[in-house]
## 1
Amino acid sequence: MQYLFRHRPLANAALQLSIAAILLPATLPAFAARPFVTDDARLTTAGSCQLESWLRVYPQSREAWALPACNPGGNLEITAGGGRARGDGEAATQDYLLQAKTLLRTLEADGFGLGFAAGRVMHPTVNPGPNLFGNTYAYVPLTLAFADGRTLIHGNLGWLREHNSRQDKLTWGIGGEYAFGQRVSAIAEVFGDNRAQAFWQTGVRVFIVPDRVQIDATLGGQNDSGPGGRWFSLGLRLTPAQMF
């Protein structure tokens, strides 16, 4: 994952983040990350960086995110970025994120991978003063690979601390993806926490340049939110070759 819920007056929509890593080892095709909210047990290419960016549109609000991530040493990925959201007739708000992720087991063809991630999302324009620090979280991503990596199942289990409400939450996510070839794959997932109705999302991912430039599109929503909580998203992911 991680999706990090922070309710605010944007058409009753819950804000969520997805920080997903990309690129399997050389033995597998590189299919993953955006547009998933459920994270996978993989990292950005060692010695390189990636950029995940997306626009999410609700009936009465919009969000835009950019999350650069780098893996300079091989088994530690650092993500630092932010987003901007605006509801109809409302002032824009900003969010900032910092996360570290490592692998406990590297994913192999027809095997599984396991990782650990922790981070913090800050909401200074929504929760000023003592609530500046927003949400702190940690989670374990698990990925299972089948059919030489063309079918992948991702599972997340984690903890989230909302500093504003002083609540602790158990977070979870389950997602699957299927690759139709080197360029196109389909995704579907459900995710949530123990205090709210689950969210769902489904969509498609297309590599314009294999393993380097990806675009994606999804439809999603929350089980009890009705049409007002539905969203449509468009994403762009850039994954250059080794940079350092």
## 2
Amino acid sequence: MSQQLMGILPMLLVFVAFYFFLIRPQQKRQKERTQMLGNLKKGDKVVTIGGLHGTIVELGEEKVTLKVSDNTRLVFERSAINSVANAEEAGAAKSAE
């Protein structure tokens, strides 16, 4: 009986290590990203996955229209938004104080 347990124990430890080092952090990042995409609003300064910086001028269920210059507006899928620049600037300002 203890020989069987000793044979299974390393596999169990590997699974636990994979869960805590790979699976759990990925789930946490995905949850934060989903929350960020859900909290988008007009006027937010965002960065797309491709590195394009712009300001949200129109927001739909699946599409986001960004103003990238005075005359240029581009339409993206909501999932193409990588980060909100407003949140990063606010966090940097708080840490500086």
